[in-house]
Amino acid sequence: MPPHLYLNFVRLPLFFRILIIALLIIFTFGFLIYIVEPETFTSPFEGIWWAIITVSTVGYGDIVPKTTLGKLLGMLLVLLGAGFVSTYFVTLASTTVKKQTDILEGKVMFKGKDHFVIVGWNERSRVITEKILKSLYHAPVILIDQSLESNPFSDYRVHFIKGRAHIDETLMKANIYEAKKVIITADQNLDELQADMNSILALLAIKGLNPHAICVVEMLTNEQVPNAQRAGADEIIQSNLISASIMMNCLSATRMAEPLVSLLEQFNGSRFVFRSSISFIGKSFIDTNKLLIEEGSLLFGIKRGVDTIVNPPHPFIIKEEDILLVISKTENS
């Protein structure tokens, strides 16, 4: 065998090499038995059939060697070929099991596209993943985390990658180049400043590999918000600020937490939408709200520049650059 062919053969996966050797043995002995006993084995196909049945230890007995030389070939085939065939099936089974184990343990690269990437494993990422799976997105979810030992979800649409999100190798396993959206959650096992720094580091790595990916980042401290903005965050969620606002409302009235959380829960993308103000320029906030109510929507605020104004006082006139914050009961609004 030429050296380059031998090197190419050695580089093949083990079960491929064993399969090739087993097939060579089967075809060789099939042709040899046809040459030795042409009266019994009337065609090469019958010889190959006999060789396969022999090495697989099935032994139908429909066609067997009659001569001493033919029987010797059969004995040699059993000693030589059966071992390779058995080894092939054992290797194939162990390779399959190892592949499945590697997938569960987050060692296998994801090869799809237009997927959601969620960084960090905690209660928030669990809830987010479950909501994506139940939504109409129909997109796979890639979960990146260092602390998990295996995929916490049994759903085939969730692919687990074990590793740190600021390392290129981990992001490449998640096929970050083809990712649609990325959600980076804060690590609750670290102090708030360190958790924010890790989130910003992951954001920089992700944006460096895929500048077009939409990144939503959870921040715990106000002082790191400008750094997250400079790092390229498309959306910044200040979870501590949201929690503090809910708690403050609870100070002014009892039993306020449940309705407030329920209200936030309904802002799931299909209900909370942004509307252009082009059709409502020059109209008051109240008149605009009346028109939207007739469409089955509710206007509850205006985004004007960097300011968000909820339920502005009358009279509040809609301007060209305003963005309407609308709750809609239809998904197509």
TrEMBL record:
The keyword Glycosyltransferase does not apply. SUPFAM superfamilies: NAD(P)-binding Rossmann-fold domains, Voltage-gated potassium channels. It is found in: Cell membrane. It is a multi-pass membrane protein. Residues 113-237 form the RCK N-terminal domain. Keywords: Ion channel, Ion transport, Membrane, Transmembrane, Transmembrane helix, Transport. InterPro entries: K_chnl_dom, NAD(P)-bd_dom_sf, RCK_N, Trk_Ktr_HKT_K-transport. One of its GO terms (biological process) is monoatomic ion transmembrane transport. The chain crosses the membrane at residues 12-36, 48-65, 72-90. Pfam families: Ion_trans_2 (PF07885), TrkA_N (PF02254). This is Voltage-gated potassium channel. It comes from Anoxybacillus andreesenii.
